[in-house]
């Protein structure tokens, strides 16, 4: 998977920060945070369901290491930066000074400007690694939950990335937003911040419902373009864009693919004739170059989105499981309503 890069220009506003903290005592938006764990959580084991199996943690982690921007910001959104020993992500993430979680970025060490490694984990003396399949965990790198277990280091797997057993590597076991809520609830339970997690989830659901209520009568067909010229990389049913598109008022043209991030053929894009294209902006090839390619690629010339130049850009951190998803839904929803006129 190519999602080892981060976006070039996060699009977040103070309104997002206010929306997600409604009813919470703190979230890493600069307010005073509540204690990261309750007395019960400090002394007792905690069991959660992760990737379809029960996982028990003997203690509340105190030195968490994360991989990638969305996973890292889930911890920050819950106000758990004090429980972190570091994070890994590429440095093409753009300016983070205006994000609601700036305090977390200022406070938590940046361990690697690439993917996480065993060396990073050991050097940080991590007591929990929070990553995902193709978001840090992979057999090729040797960094897997089983490998870390052999080192005595517990793990938590991003639910969006859970393998589903349909093939050796296909991912996704539940709708993407349910995956987001599951991770927030599990982390809330593990770290003793259940009320904070519940407030975030409630705020997210309220904002998303408000966008859904404005959806156009005609739900436009939408294609998510991540990268690739010979073969496009896109989102199936179980990656975050699938539900971001749906909740925004569109239809993901690749929703029948029971996987998360995956490659398809251009012929399938042409056949499904998307009426709008969403570009995932990250990496060495920026959004403008991707847009130029789509508009000039001959096989796409008769595709509705290309003919009418209906192309919208969202950042990488908007389109992976992260606390930015509700804002992405609202912004894409506004665009689709305008495009449908």
TrEMBL record:
Keywords: Signal. Residues 63-341 form the Fe/B12 periplasmic-binding domain. InterPro entries: ABC_Transporter_SBP (IPR050902), ABC_transptr_periplasmic_BD (IPR002491). Pfam families: Peripla_BP_2 (PF01497). Residues 1-26 form the signal peptide. Belongs to the bacterial solute-binding protein 8 family. PANTHER family: IRON(III) DICITRATE-BINDING PROTEIN (PTHR30535:SF7), VITAMIN B12-BINDING PROTEIN (PTHR30535). This is ABC transporter substrate-binding protein. It comes from Streptomyces hebeiensis.
């Amino acid at each position: 998977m190519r999602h080892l890069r981060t976006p070039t220009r996060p699009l977040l506003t103070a309104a997002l920060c206010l929306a997600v903290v409604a009813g919470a005592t703190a979230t890493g938006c600069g307010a005073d945070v509540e204690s990261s764990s309750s007395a019960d959580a400090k002394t007792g084991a905690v069991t959660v369901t992760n990737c379809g199996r029960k996982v028990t943690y003997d203690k509340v982690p105190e030195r968490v290491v994360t991989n990638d921007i969305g996973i890292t910001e889930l911890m920050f959104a819950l106000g758990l930066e004090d429980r972190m020993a570091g994070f890994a992500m590429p440095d093409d993430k753009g300016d983070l000074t205006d994000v609601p979680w700036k305090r977390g970025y200022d406070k938590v060490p940046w361990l690697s400007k690439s993917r996480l490694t065993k060396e990073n984990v050991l050097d940080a003396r991590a007591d929990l690694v929070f990553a995902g399949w193709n978001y840090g965990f992979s057999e090729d790198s040797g960094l897997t939950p089983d490998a870390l277990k052999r080192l005595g280091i517990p793990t938590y797997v991003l639910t969006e990335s859970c393998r589903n057993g349909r093939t050796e590597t296909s991912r996704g076991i539940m709708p993407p937003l349910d995956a987001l809520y599951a991770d927030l609830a599990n982390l809330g339970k593990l770290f003793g911040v259940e009320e904070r997690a519940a407030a975030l989830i409630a705020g997210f659901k309220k904002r998303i419902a408000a966008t859904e209520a404005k959806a156009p009568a005609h739900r436009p067909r939408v294609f998510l373009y991540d990268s690739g010229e010979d073969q496009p990389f896109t989102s199936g049913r179980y990656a975050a864009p699938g539900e971001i598109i749906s909740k925004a008022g569109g239809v993901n043209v690749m929703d029948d693919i029971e996987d998360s991030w995956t490659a398809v053929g251009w012929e399938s894009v042409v056949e499904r004739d998307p009426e709008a294209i969403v570009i995932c902006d990250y990496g060495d090839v920026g959004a403008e170059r991707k847009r130029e390619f789509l508009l000039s690629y001959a096989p796409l010339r008769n595709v509705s989105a290309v003919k009418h130049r209906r192309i919208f850009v969202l950042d990488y951190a908007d389109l992976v499981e992260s606390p930015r998803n509700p804002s992405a839904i609202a912004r894409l929803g506004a665009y689709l309503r305008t495009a449908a006129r």
